[in-house]
TrEMBL record:
Residues 158-226 form the PAS domain. InterPro entries: PAS, PAS-like_dom_sf, Period_circadian_regulator. Keywords: Nucleus. The keyword Nucleus applies. One of its GO terms (molecular function) is transcription cis-regulatory region binding. GO terms for cellular component: cytoplasm; nucleus. One of its GO terms (biological process) is negative regulation of transcription by RNA polymerase II. This is PAS domain-containing protein. It is found in: Nucleus. Residues 18-36 have a biased composition (Pro residues).
Length: 322
């Protein structure tokens, strides 16, 4: 159980989303292929398609969950470890000036600080036979803090089965700046990726990209530069790594904002369409098995590719670009 928080400026009401994602209509899904390993055969080239064949970027929703305000609230506020079912605080750490070191002292009762609905969410998640993560949103005013808690469950196995036949295509949005740091990811993607916004916001775009597919991301940025920021589409599937290490195949469209004065790309928006069941354990919410090597690039190699992406985005475009 990993509580995470987001600060939000003076919100009077905080809607509590449903604990379980909506059940999709059962549909037959093809057996996903086995992912290749790093250093395997070369991947298909990435080509830019005619923008007229793709949906215009103004139809891309900035978030799939309208009631979740994404502005200025993507940072970790505090973490707390406590006993169950009593709620006695064992340890805590704060990451913002809004909370001082004495906000959650050891020995106090964490559950007592929550409203009854928040307490029931945590206790119900702890008592469930299916492993779940907890997503907590914190709204802070001058003299109080309100916590909204949501028990999360993998979208691929809603009944707790190892493999689920219930699957429907899902699309989510990410945004990253010219520094390659993620600035936005849809909250609705949590049951599909198993990753909380606080796991990714501020981190590299490559933090959840399958390592053999970084060339797909690089080529997409080259195509964006050549197209003056107009929509491009990766012909090769872009594979993303879920929280538990499973692989998700996505069909991805890219669009960029080009500053008309500097003629440089300042923001890239990507629309990822998950089109098959994950390759690996369907319970993407669970933690990765101990001793299993991550499927993302090691930090040193990731930095090399990030430098390449930054160079592409900061490259001045041709005259007449806008």
């Amino acid at each position: 159980m990993e509580p995470a928080g987001h600060s939000s400026a003076t919100s009077n009401t905080t809607p509590v989303p449903q604990a379980n994602p909506p059940q999709p209509t059962p549909a037959a899904a093809p057996s996903p292929p086995t992912p290749s390993t790093p250093g395997a055969a070369a991947q298909p080239s990435v080509m830019r398609e005619d923008g007229a064949t793709l949906s215009p970027p103004n139809t891309w929703s900035s978030s799939s969950v309208e009631y979740m305000d994404d502005a200025d609230d993507n940072r970790l506020l505090f973490t707390c470890t406590f006993t169950l079912p009593h709620g006695t605080v064992l340890s805590s750490a704060t990451y913002t000036d809004n909370f001082n070191e004495q906000y959650l002292p050891m020995g106090t009762n964490f559950l007592a600080r929550l409203e009854p609905k928040g307490q029931s969410f945590i206790l119900s998640a702890a008592a469930a036979s299916v492993k779940q993560r907890i997503f907590a949103r914190v709204a802070i005013t001058e003299d109080r803090a309100k916590i909204t808690v949501l028990a999360l469950r993998s979208a691929f196995n809603p009944q707790g089965a190892t493999v689920s036949s219930n699957f429907h295509v899902f699309t989510f949005i990410t945004k990253h700046s010219s520094t390659c740091a993620l600035t936005h990811i849809d909250y609705a993607s949590i049951p599909y990726l198993g990753l909380l916004p606080t796991d990714l916001i501020g981190k590299s775009l490559l933090a959840f990209v399958y390592s053999p597919d970084v060339h797909v991301v690089r080529q997409a940025h080259v195509d964006l530069h050549n197209s003056r920021g107009k929509i491009v589409k990766s012909i090769a599937d872009l594979r993303l790594v879920a929280h538990n290490g499973s692989i998700l195949r996505c069909q991805t469209e890219w669009s960029a904002y080009v500053n008309p004065w500097t003629r440089k790309m300042e923001l890239v928006v990507a629309r990822h369409r998950i089109c098959s069941l994950p390759i690996g354990d369907a319970d993407v919410i669970s933690s990765p098995p101990a001793g299993i090597q991550t499927n993302t690039l090691p930090p040193v190699m990731a930095k090399t590719f990030e430098d390449e992406l930054r160079t592409i985005m900061n490259k001045v475009g041709l005259m007449g670009e806008c």
